[in-house]
Amino acid sequence: MDRGLNTRCLHLEETEGQINNCGALSYPIYQTATYAHPGVGRSMGYDYSRLQNPTREQLEKVVAALEGGIDAVALSTGMAAIALLMEIFEPGDHIIAEADLYGGSIRFFDNVSKKNHYEFTYLNCAGDDIEGSIKANTKAIFLETPTNPMMNISDITKIAEIAKKRGLLLIVDNTFLSPYFQNPLQLGADVVVHSGTKFLGGHNDTLAGFIVTSSPKIQEKLRFLIKTTGAGLAPFDSWLILRGIKTLGIRMERAQENAIQIARWLKEQKIVTKVFYPGLVEHPGHEIMKKQARGFGSMITFNVDTKEHALKILESVRMIKFAESLGGVETLITYPTTQTHADVPEEVRLKNGISPCTLRISVGIEDAKDLLAELESVFAKLI
Hints:
The chain has 13 helices and 12 strands. The longest helix has 20 residues, at about 250-265. α2 runs parallel beside α8 (about 235-245) and α3 (about 80-85) runs parallel beside α4. It is of the alpha/beta class. It has a 7-stranded mixed sheet, with helices on both faces. A 5-stranded mixed sheet has the order 8-9-12-11-10, covered by helices on one side.
């Protein structure tokens, strides 16, 4: 039976009725580092929690099922997931990466991966010539779509065709949409990355990261690496993400409803010069998004007319919090210039469209009328 997404967020079919937990609906937290065995060569299925833990394993099965992958590995943070994934490459390998990536990803590539003699070419993957940038040592294409923070939309299917033709891996960071709205593996990607801290956890209270793959070869490499490098997600954090995923669908839908209203409201404000939200029909990626995703998400980026207005907005919000991160139930507003992209060189930020007038909102699940009332109050003081 082909179950719906909300049902799959709640029920992993293969474990129904098989949990020895006294009928508890919440999967147990196996808070243990090691496991006893009845004898030599007679394992109970687990040896040491750096290798695997039942709670983490359950979470990995849920995330893999939601993304349509054969396996998922759960790690301590989203950046730990990217760091582990980069270990599948070798010195001298070349990777084509989206230019408008999360600043932490760029920082890692430029300061850690390059130190390890990886080579990167940054492109606007929504419009630049990807195929023309492929070299003899190119091994992968790394995308975000939508991008962080400028909300550029790349055609995953089209880029997957290029990757497969040239024997490259296609990696997609799917954090902004979550598996509820988008499944890159089904569109031809080989690997999906998530910051599980964001929409999967959904409550701004837990750090986590995921790598999901449809490739047995990559699965084998990742399983070796996670037990070797030791960044697997702890049992209690695994349980918190499992709990968060149960409400993934209703959170994503509610936050998206709010985001559409806020994006439309922002468009009408005199001090707002540009709104970047793929749910708006004028967004250049709107039609691609409709083709490859089931929704537009709840992330909005916008520019105001002056840096002074941007800073005043950040100082004036109250219910909406001026904070980094995204994807939680609370609405957050972020200043990419000094927060998420502070380590990206200024000339690169400006080229990508991130200016001192740029703000990013992660819309939460509050009542839309209350969010709009706060924004109206804040903006009224600026006119």
